[in-house]
């Protein structure tokens, strides 16, 4: 059962209560024939039997409610990359892998590319961001998710001018720019590693990413090629890889499509993916550019960075939208 504020589907407890009251107190059917209806209960015992049935039904409903796990959630999206967010500071929802998968299911749940819990951070930052893919498994950093959880924290009254939080890959800072845009500081990146074929590269930007350049990303069968590359043996140590196909449009502007592991499908945008694509483009094709605009399927993202003499990257900032779509409660 899902309760949604701001959405068009609303289901309330009153429906269940109405069914309960109707089932308990519904009047006996009026006979349509002249024959006297036969009582299923021997004379003199109807009252006690009705009371037993009443108690049994009420107890059944109470037990059903008691067994349900009620979770308050919010849904956010950044450039079409959408997430379920849960405030877990007061209590751990203790979600199983199957429950995460169900919450992210677009037909039987809320629907999302991933799920995040906002938790207290013993290290002293504003909060800890824990990320789960839609397949139910806990995963690594998500750039679009980082902007969304920063906005979620702001809605919860956490932080100040900026949000400083920790995730699986380290500490991040997020700043609201206005007009729905957020700037997220990513971790430093040590290298862009060539894979030996002259057109593909591997970059770790908080999550593992394969980057391949192509003349026209619109012609790439992302579902087929992405699934094949994602599970190659060379990426097994990283738990598989995300796969990005990149088209260079002009100086400082690229187009990217991404197949995400854990979602096992193309997503409308991937923040760590476009960051990896930008760094690979700078290293191999546009060494003079350090400020890129990226066209993703779900919108426009920006990536700025600095370089060090040893070839590594620092001060990497991912810019893009973050939006609260709706809030609600779900029972599992």
UniProtKB/TrEMBL annotation:
It catalyses: (2S,6S)-2,6-diaminopimelate = meso-2,6-diaminopimelate. Substrate binds at residues 81, 133, 143-144, 242, 260-261, 271-272. One of its GO terms (biological process) is lysine biosynthetic process via diaminopimelate. It comes from the Bacteria. GO terms for molecular function: diaminopimelate epimerase activity. One of its GO terms (cellular component) is cytosol. PROSITE patterns: DAP_EPIMERASE. The active site is at residues 142, 270. It is found in: Cytoplasm. Keywords: Amino-acid biosynthesis, Cytoplasm, Isomerase, Lysine biosynthesis. The keyword Coiled coil does not apply. Gene3D superfamilies: Diaminopimelate Epimerase, Chain A, domain 1 (3.10.310.10). The keyword Membrane does not apply. Its main location: cytoplasm. The record marks 209, 260 as: Could be important to modulate the pK values of the two catalytic cysteine residues. Pathway: Amino-acid biosynthesis; L-lysine biosynthesis via DAP pathway; DL-2,6-diaminopimelate from LL-2,6-diaminopimelate: step 1/1. Its EC number is 5.1.1.7. Pfam families: DAP_epimerase. SUPFAM superfamilies: Diaminopimelate epimerase-like. Belongs to the diaminopimelate epimerase family. Catalyzes the stereoinversion of LL-2,6-diaminopimelate (L,L-DAP) to meso-diaminopimelate (meso-DAP), a precursor of L-lysine and an essential component of the bacterial peptidoglycan. Homodimer. This is Diaminopimelate epimerase.
